[in-house]
Amino acid sequence: MSVTFTADWRPATQFAVTCGCERATALAVPHDTYEAASVEALSAGPVHNALPGCAMPEICPEYPLHVHDVDPGGEFAPEVNLSERNASLLTDLLGFTAPETTGAPRPPRLDDGPAGDAGQLPAVDFLGRVLVALALAPEDEGLDGYWDGRHHLGDRRAGYLQLRLAELRDLAQWCVDRGRNVAWG
Q: Residues 159, 161, 165, 167: is their CA dihedral positive or negative?
């Protein structure tokens, strides 16, 4: 499972066919309807040429294309996708798991169950939390991966959390500039 941080949902104005790479998505030709974009995606077939701007052109042709919605401003809202394990670490750094002994209400956290797996905050509040976390969090030393039976629990390279916090800062600033909330789920 994973958790994606992005701008709060707005109805799409256009749709683009993409492999999922940020640059390929930005270069995609937008369609006015979901149906037109779906026809393009399906007509590409199971194997297609790498899309212009794709970050992984050697494997892009083997992956299916999907339809991505374009925001009302004609932009693609930035997204930060994390494994649930890393998202939980980041939400701790952002203060979403404040001690419950204070009696003060707290934002939802990922381990709250269905209601805590998703949420949103005003972008200014989210940006403030990210800036505090960037200033106070110790440098991420990383984590070695290990096997648990047949399952590998992946490693995390040194500095990973700071890199992701920087991406969340950019996302929050994008949302602040456009009057949008930051949402995750």
A: positive
Cα(153)–Cα(90) distance, integer angstroms: 17
Q: How far apart are CA 160 and CA 166, in angstroms?
A: 10
From residue 59, alpha-carbon distances to 22, 30, 49 in Å are 15, 23, 10
For 42-85, write each residue's pLDDT tens digit.
888 888 888 999 999 998 888 889 898 888 878 888 899 988 87
User: Hey, what's the torsion of the CAs at 88, 92, 93, 95, to 10 degrees?
Assistant: 140
90 or 114: which leads in pLDDT: 90
The arrangement of strands across the sheet holding 181-184 comes to: 79-83, 2-7, 181-184, 119-122
Q: What predicted TM-score, i.e. pTM, was given to this entire model?
A: 0.73
Contacts of 172 (CB under 8 A, 6+ apart): 123, 126, 127, 130, 182
